[in-house]
Design brief:
- This protein is of the alpha/beta class.
- 35% of the residues lie in helices and 24% in strands.
- It is built from 8 helices and 17 strands.
- The strands form 3 sheets. Strands 1, 2, 3, 9, 12, 13, 14, 15, 16 and 17 form a 10-stranded mixed sheet that branches.
- The radius of gyration is 19 Å and the shape is globular.
Length: 310
């Protein structure tokens, strides 16, 4: 099968952990143990989040020089290279020496008129207390929203329209290569008004939505959205919470899930299933083989009869 696996930010940076390279590498090594058997048996494309990393780079750049511009397309390219390197090395250490891997800097086209530019929602960077968030917001002009019991910066997250480097990814897959691409949703780009000139965009594209677009363009057999929980849950955090085992794309309303976390995952999985007639699965990266075998996670597919919980 041709499988696209979208690694959540937890694969690199678990909530509450210090943002060190050593910690990120250790988390990638854990994810690689689940990815390696899949890479040996299937065509594999890996995408990943970059919210904590791109936010930290933006903070570091701003602290270094308040006057210079370090836009998010440039920071996105930096994180694609850095995170791709970690995944490529840790996964490569578990695969046969002759198995090729490649990290590709990937641009994602968005629409300049996307309403998301007027309503920032994408979390980036570390967590702050409310007082620290207010101070940073006033000093730097950043927008903050509450994320659980902490506060984080938010930036625009426009809808992805196209993965620009789709053809090179296809070429690499045809040559038995594991491809790491569309990191952080891809480098945000758009065409200037009335031109065919591609320019960078001050935004961060949701990696799950971009992964769904990528999987559809590659005619993938399966989209896996790997996160830090074992399934999509209804009434999460309440005594009535229950895991969704299977669901039709129309049976889950993304608006009923948190916009900064599970909502985009449900939306992306449903979009892929609805547009392709194939399956998407949401679940834990540590249970990846079980998810592919249909034994774990939440499977969303058009042939499902409503929704089944467990």
């Amino acid at each position: 099968m041709r499988i696209v696996v979208a690694l959540g930010g937890n694969a690199l940076q678990r909530r509450g952990e210090p943002m060190t390279i050593e910690g990120q590498r250790a988390n990638v090594a854990i994810a690689a143990k689940s990815l390696a058997p899949v890479a040996e048996r299937h065509e594999l494309v890996i995408s990943h989040g970059n919210g904590p990393q791109v936010g930290l780079l933006a903070l570091q750049a701003s602290a270094y020089d308040e006057a210079s511009s370090y836009p998010f397309d440039i920071l996105g390219a930096q994180t694609e290279g850095m995170i791709g390197y970690l995944i490529e090395q840790e996964l490569g250490n578990l695969l046969p020496p002759d198995k090729p891997l490649a990290t590709m800097l990937t641009m994602t086209e968005v629409d300049a008129t996307d309403p998301a530019f007027e309503n920032p929602t994408k979390f980036v960077g570390p967590v702050y207390t409310e007082d620290a968030a207010r101070e940073l917001g006033a000093r730097k002009g950043w927008t903050f929203r509450q994320d659980g019991d902490a506060w984080r910066r938010v930036v625009p997250s426009p809808e992805p329209k196209r993965i620009v480097e789709g053809r090179p990814v296809e070429w690499l897959l045809a040559h038995d290569c594991v491809v790491i691409c569309a990191g952080g949703g891809g480098i945000p780009t758009m065409y200037g008004a009335g031109t065919r000139t591609l320019v960078g965009v001050e935004a961060v594209i949701d990696k799950d939505r971009a992964s769904a677009v990528l999987a559809e363009s590659l005619h993938a057999d399966l989209l896996v959205i790997a996160t830090d929980v074992d399934a999509v849950y209804l009434d999460w955090g309440t005594p009535e919470q229950r895991a969704v085992a299977t669901a039709h794309p129309d049976a889950l309303d993304p608006a009923t899930f948190p916009a900064g976390s599970m909502g985009p995952k449900v939306e992306a999985a449903a979009q892929f299933a609805r547009n392709t007639g194939r399956s998407a699965i949401v679940g834990s990266i540590e249970q990846l083989p079980e998810m592919i075998a249909g034994e774990s996670g939440t499977r969303i597919f058009s042939q499902a009869d409503g929704m089944v919980t467990r």
